[in-house]
What we know:
By secondary structure, the chain is an alpha/beta fold. It contains nine helices and 13 strands. Helix 8 links the parallel strand 11 (290-293) and strand 12. Residues 1-7 and 9-105 have low confidence and may be disordered.
Amino acid sequence: MVAAASCVALAGGLTGLLTAGGGEHGGERVATAPAPSLAVAPEPSSPAATLPSRAPSPRTTAPAPSRAAPASRTPAAGPSALPGAPTSPAGPDGDGKSAASGTGAGAGAGRLFRFPDSQVADWVDDHPADPRADAIEDGIARRPAAVWFADHSPGTITARVTAVTRAAARADAVPVLVAYDVPGRDCGGASQGGAPDLAAYDDWITRFARGLGDGENIVILEPDAIAQSDCLPAADRAARFASLERAARVLKAAGPRTRVYFDAGHSGWLEPDRAAALLRQAGAARAGDGIFTNVSHFHRTADETAYARAVLDALGGPPGLGAVVDTSRNGNGAPPGGAWCDPAGRALGTPPTLRTGQARIDAYLWVKLPGESDGCTAAPGTFSPEAAYALVRG
């Protein structure tokens, strides 16, 4: 078996900081984001929080489980919903050669939100004369992507989530929010951290949920928390899964139009029956809206959609359960040998969209922000114009 590690590279974040780690064995990085101009109402009994001006993207990593290593989950602390961004998907392999029509069953037919604060946007703004700037702006900076919440700061989390959801509502767009604070995340690896215990996590999620509001939202609930859970003793795993189910119920109760997706790893990591068994234990079919796959990895869209459907079939549950797939860097598929940390020769994948034209596939999302290091070519979460341009060129 090839050692697998899921890596959620997170760094810097909304209103303060997001802790972030790198690739499978990457180091941890903490960045602070300057206080921004958009203030939102403070959480009850907590100081006012403001939306940062350009939060560096999230990143983290996971220790090696038992299959192909998922690449560092690098989401930017605020990708974007752009009025002119393309929303039609690329071909089934994410190569942009053929557009599909139709809508995924569950996530809605609107457009995805591009949060304007990200490292790639900063770089484009700061380097207007660079000959690569236009390609990077058009290929990456103008695409919607996920907003990660990865620091345990219960005093400000409600205000920070509110800042994103209100901005998305004003743009009439759907934000993608990543909750990444589960205790023991990354199994003690480079992205270790999260809440000090499950009681604190439950409180953090409750506060997170208060910021969702009445608009449409997509929540990616704890990357790696299920697929990578074999590192936990049985009792601790059961306790984590119970907390994840509670989290989904709290999120959906607070945000009536919020869709919550649970971690299913990716097609090179878990067998569908194994993924479904873990998801069932975590209450995904009872409390959630479906599953997410391929976060920060490179498997082709066609492989992931087939895997996602196989997991959903094995999971059972309500007929409305769907899947979302991270397609940010899968245009050339996964590299040989299970390489996951800043591998060369990758390409941008299927553009983010809520209209996939694929049954049971609710959305293609950019959860990992392209151009940010997994931790091998640079510090985890570091934006590289060279890497971004290489992805754009494919």
